[in-house]
């Protein structure tokens, strides 16, 4: 079963709103084993809405329409559906009473605009909206089942869960998904390592590479009848685990900070950070994770050299002799913050994020990272490119990678 | 001039990645006075990619394609373009050498797949990618100018800024644009304040609200013939400056961190931070700005209470009596970090980001922020919602807002 998603609203086209509704629907539909063929965003234009519904209905078994059901003059989905189905808008008394009740409950005056939301194309079925005013709409066009939902995320999600899933959840199809977080290898090199697995792909099995500065998310997916391709899927997952073992950070869909945090929590270890060129990013990434206070103590943003000395006890001689971006200072920062915070482990980053500050010996992108425990020190030099944002994000994630290495190797 | 955006990648359809590239492009194109007609997301399917490029090129003056230029088997945009233009993939020696250099710089092995990224449809022009391996592609189809960009956001944005804007920025028509950064007022309240200005809009004049957790970017734009609507545009800008004066942080398109940094630099002041629930985000935002070392010294991520005491000298009695999330501790953190770093100003944040840790008196979202100078203290309590990411980002930006207030009022 294939589905298209049609999102309606000028705000999506001018970048004012990111289309998280479509992503959410895509995830939901995929997990139901339904193949999402396309996500289309168009503006609030009656003729265009009609045309796109017609076009997408002719190419999909299922069509999810979001937006344009609200009370304002630029909400035109109802009218476009009438144009397409050759039907009329009629007041739906049940919906009208429900809307009146909602407004009464909140002590609001019902105005003409709100009443519009009870006007239903008379060729459509309504879908109860327990989260807002505008009901969802259901209709069929040729062989396509179409649903129109309000663009307000809570209303869209609520109607989808309450009304649509029971109608569309396929009884005969199933899906398996396994996502790996892979770090420290380029996408292309990983693809080489996994080349032999391509023979397993196709016919219900896919392997997707989702590269980012925080590693590659590698997603193996099986999608089809309950008994279809399950053996091949198992082979695929085992193959990935065997061929990419040394770069697999996690076998779930999580970030570096989540994976490292889980590891620290398992081992009962605490971590502190000393951040120069990353300026706090490592701490920010670690504390994005709820419960990170179980293992993350905090640390020092040692951006200025004076702070490296005064807060972390880095020797002026090290700074003068080797420079702030050096192996010696990276290690001194890590040991300094570990001692002062009393953490089990510490990681420090010092580098040249650019655009300024580079030299022939230490060009922009030069970063030293040190991870220390009571018994062990790992310190490495990296060249992370020329773009400030990329250098910083790579450095922060590499720092998390070194912490993991330290723990795994202890 | 109308533009369509075609985003390619299964990860967008299954909801694993939200299409922020398209929103960013939509914002950029709109601000150039180009009308975005549609945003289309499709999967990694060669024939479909070819078909959609052809369809969209026939209905738009401009086509932005993103994704499918990477090294792996599911990157098929190059092949689809060859199918469509009836041309061949050829190794581009310049691009190949650049990619070799990139890999060499990072000490990585160049493999066949990476070399693929130097294979260019010979009917296409290449666009320099200074942020990654795959170059952008440019070609024309009928009356449509088409550009293909990598899906990695930093690469897409970089190539768009460096190579595409100079080519597409409209020359026949002239554009006046004034973007304000507005902070501390809700979008709807701002719209009410500015209501009387709506009479000026239309016929070449637009006013766009781009709300985010770091404030509202309010963009006034005039787009048309050189002499058209210039008077109205001036009235619009003056009207905004008059009606929203107290919430205007900046009259340029910049972030809170950029605006505050510029102010600190002008005044020759230095800043340090003490971050609890934000975990380093304020430092990260400040150091995103090149040259921030001129005014930002660094600070302490005082996530654990032990660090509040040991690194910043917060009294145990204050922590016990008032709790870590309190006016007293916020001020003590700010004064502690200011003294220990020797900065002119300091700002501290302590709060409950959630999901855990809330209580009836201090529910999730409770945040205390203190900004101090030698002579002045500002401390405020905020309720910032229930979602961890939102609480933290709002808190970090509010902290920057308090620093600005401190400087402006000194």
Task: Write up what this structure looks like.
- Two copies of one chain form a homodimer.
- Chain A is an alpha/beta fold and 410 residues long.
- Chain A has three domains: 2-171, Molybdenum Cofactor Biosythetic Enzyme, Chain A, CATH 3.40.980; 175-250, Alpha-Beta Plaits, CATH 3.30.70; 256-409, Alpha-Beta Complex (Maf protein), CATH 3.90.950.
- The first copy, chain A, has 15 helices and 17 strands.
- A six-stranded mixed β-sheet of chain A has the order 2-1-3-8-7-6, with helices on both faces. Chain A has a five-stranded mixed β-sheet with strand order 14-13-15-16-17, with helices on both faces.
- In chain A, strand 7 and strand 8 form a beta hairpin.
- Chain A is elongated, with a radius of gyration of 28 Å.
- The model of chain A has no long low-confidence stretch (mean pLDDT 93).
- Chains A and B meet through helix 2, strand 2, helix 8, strand 10 and strand 11 of A and helix 1, helix 2, strand 2, helix 5 and helix 6 of B.
- Strand 14 of chain A pairs antiparallel with strand 14 (296-301) of chain B.
